[in-house]
Amino acid sequence: MAAKSKSKVLRVHYNFDLSGGAEYDILKLLKVFNERGYDHRLILIERIKNEYHFKESTSSESASFRSLHDLERYVMEFIRLHAFTIIHLHSLPYPEVIDVFFRIGLPVYKSMHDAMMVCPGWGKFWLTDETPCSKPYGIHCLIHAYTKKCTRSRKPEKVLDSYQYVHYEIHEAANSYKQILVYSSYMKSQALAVGIPEEKISHIPSPQFEADDRPDDKDEVNKPERLLFVGRLSKQKGLHYLLEAMALLKKRGIHIELDVIGDGQNREEFMRMAETLGLSGTVFFYGWVSRSQVKDYYRKAIALIIPSVYPDNFPNVVAEAMINRKVVITFDSGGTAEWFEDGISGFKVPSKGIHALAEKIEFVLNHADLKTIGENARQHLLKTHHPDRVFERYQQLYS
Hints:
Blueprint: E1 9-13, H1 21-34, E2 41-48, E3 51-56, E4 62-65, H2 68-82, E5 86-89, H3 95-104, E6 108-112, E7 125-126, E8 131-132, H4 141-147, H5 156-173, E9 180-182, H6 185-193, E10 201-203, E11 226-230, H7 239-251, E12 257-261, H8 267-276, E13 283-287, H9 291-300, E14 303-306, H10 316-323, E15 327-331, E16 347-349, H11 354-365, H12 371-384, H13 387-398
Parallel strand pairs: 1-2, 1-5, 5-6, 6-9, 9-10, 11-12, 11-14, 12-13, 14-15, 15-16
Antiparallel strand pairs: 2-3, 3-4, 7-8
């Protein structure tokens, strides 16, 4: 019997900056398959005004096209040259470009790294209220863009463009995709809420690789326990709720320090808030650091706190802490707490629950035996999100 040929998957994304969360997921998937001898590739297509830009992720060269027709000819030749058998679209907010890939005639898969496909604001979040949007896509989105500040751009032409893109995905593209892949039950619920058929949706694990198996730092004898926050410094990520919880702990006579890794538009505001709450000298802002440096902060921390009120799909930072055997405490928002089993391999508290967050942090501080939670977290990830498991699930779908 002849050996079964390996699928050749062309992955397509729009963001040339490969440093974000969705981009990190895509790069991990490439690593999973390429380490097993599969020739999967990633191309990036971005539309700027009336021009299309094309780039292969591993190349420094790029090409530009003034017409969709020229882009289509180039893409078709690229697919023919490399003999791809499957197309996998990640984030690609251009209906006319998606149609190009449908016309090629190969099976087309789609990943929902975020709510872009079902939400004109891309985030299912009302910034005005700091509350997840509870309404499925509809004409109301055009109003909420201004009353709830739920979109990244409120220029009328961009709001309308995003609205039309979501309409296209839901009412035209969704039925043409071979499968739509989601990482969390939360994201699946958002797809179902807009009428995407359940049989089109596959819940699939995000790949996580084993961390360096180095022990926690033990050289900080008689120094306060440390908490860790990693993320964008914006209201959506909820650092202000963590600062208020730390102020409550300080009033109870509990001295604990916090390392903050990240940057964003609210950094100065959070720094002033820490000072106003009397947390100067206990909260340290480091900005963005390298991934290797982040691991050093994991080793020093007793717990990672993710007080995000934004409905994240499946934030990687939670997994990174778990694989490093860290206790994780999160708000129950979106898919954030779906990485772990509550009380067994992590802890979740109600979103915006400042008192509940303070109590859970105090509980962790008072129970040194909670190292078992960290070990449970690591083993849970290795069981459910190991690259071998991810590879098997994708192969089932692709075949």
